[in-house]
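> example.struct
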């Protein structure tokens, strides 16, 4: 079986998740204000080890720094916190001065883990770094030319450039160079002049609007930038080729998450409830590959089962009856996707969490999926 279903906490929607460096502990948010930590036991079950309870509203994103072992969380309460594990094993939060007046929507640590980026509904990207003297995290703001909510961010490998996707249908690449904490950066394919907040590149998802951006991702070398939009599209911009952008409109439902799993392979997942493979050739052209699993027919539930689950579904899903089941492992939209084993050059396992409350681990090196990946090398 290439997909393994894991049970972490109650069967309610999981908004986001992140892994510890040893991949034995996972941080999840069940669509509420809490961040729950679960550790895998020898038998394969997951036991809750801690709860990070500081936010007042729903947690929108989590990221876990593998080297410094710090967790950063952001929430609709307009705040972000950095969590550090003490000698007693307990997690303690550190204040982040975001200075925003709308919800914090997304967060990611930089590759060197000396700063992180927070997107928000205030049309601001906050680049946060530690003020060691005062022991809190301060933010510098990127404001222009942002005109709408920032929905997703991803870092370039050089620790300076940041890609951001917005609901104004555009993807932008900014410089986040902070002279107080890092040396002057060298030139890249995206440009040479990199003062803080400098706009290095801007791409429109479509001349006629297209759809707002759900996820962005740099490849391992940082030469290509991929993104997915709400118009069921996937696009790749190639910096060495003169910022050429190639876009593919699919007949699938919109994607919400995106990963590079190889030098020329992408994995996207969203409202279709199953990850889909894509291939990028040397010219940057994107072509659709197979799904990680082929969904069978919708399975109809019996009347007795529907009656039994009526009140439970009313409480959990807001529906009185759920009398059918999808032929896929996930039964609801996939909200987040992470590399569990490997890296952007060769991912061997990825994890997905979804609105059905399930954590699914996909083994890309298994026989069936390895065959699909091999067939994708056009």
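> example.seq
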């Amino acid at each position: 079986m290439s997909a393994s279903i894991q049970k972490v906490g109650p069967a309610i929607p999981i908004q986001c998740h992140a892994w510890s460096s040893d991949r034995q502990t996972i941080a999840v948010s069940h669509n509420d204000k809490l961040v729950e930590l679960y550790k895998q036991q020898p038998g394969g079950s997951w036991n809750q080890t801690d709860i990070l309870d500081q936010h007042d509203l729903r947690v929108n994103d989590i990221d876990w720094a593998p080297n410094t072992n710090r967790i950063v969380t952001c929430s609709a309460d307009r705040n972000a916190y950095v969590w550090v594990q003490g000698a007693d094993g307990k997690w303690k939060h550190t204040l982040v001065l975001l200075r925003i007046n709308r919800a914090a929507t997304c967060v990611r640590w930089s590759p060197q883990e000396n700063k992180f980026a927070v997107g928000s509904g205030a049309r601001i990207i906050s680049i946060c770094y530690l003020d060691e003297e005062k022991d809190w995290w301060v933010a510098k703001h990127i404001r222009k030319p942002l005109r709408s909510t920032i929905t997703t961010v991803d870092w370039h490998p050089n620790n300076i450039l940041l890609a951001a996707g917005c609901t104004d249908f555009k993807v932008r690449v900014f410089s986040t160079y902070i002279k107080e904490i890092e040396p002057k950066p060298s030139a890249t394919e995206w440009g040479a002049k990199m003062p803080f907040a400098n706009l290095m590149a801007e791409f429109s998802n479509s001349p006629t609007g297209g759809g707002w951006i759900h996820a962005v991702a740099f490849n391992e070398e940082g030469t290509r930038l991929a993104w997915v939009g709400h118009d069921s599209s996937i696009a790749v911009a190639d910096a060495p080729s003169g910022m050429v952008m190639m876009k593919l409109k699919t007949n699938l439902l919109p994607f919400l998450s995106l990963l590079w799993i190889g030098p020329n392979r992408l994995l996207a997942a969203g409202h279709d409830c199953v990850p889909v493979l894509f291939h990028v050739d040397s010219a940057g052209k994107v072509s659709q590959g197979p799904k990680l699993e082929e969904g069978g027919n919708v399975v109809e539930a019996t009347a007795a089962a529907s009656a039994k689950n009526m009140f439970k579904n009313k409480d959990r899903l807001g529906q009185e009856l759920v009398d059918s089941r999808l032929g896929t492992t996930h039964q609801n939209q996939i909200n987040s996707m992470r590399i569990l084993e490997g890296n952007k050059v060769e991912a061997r396992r990825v994890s997905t969490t979804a609105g059905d409350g399930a954590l699914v681990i996909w083994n890309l090196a298994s026989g069936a999926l390895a065959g699909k990946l091999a067939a994708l090398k056009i």
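> remarks
DSSP finds two helices and 30 strands in the chain.
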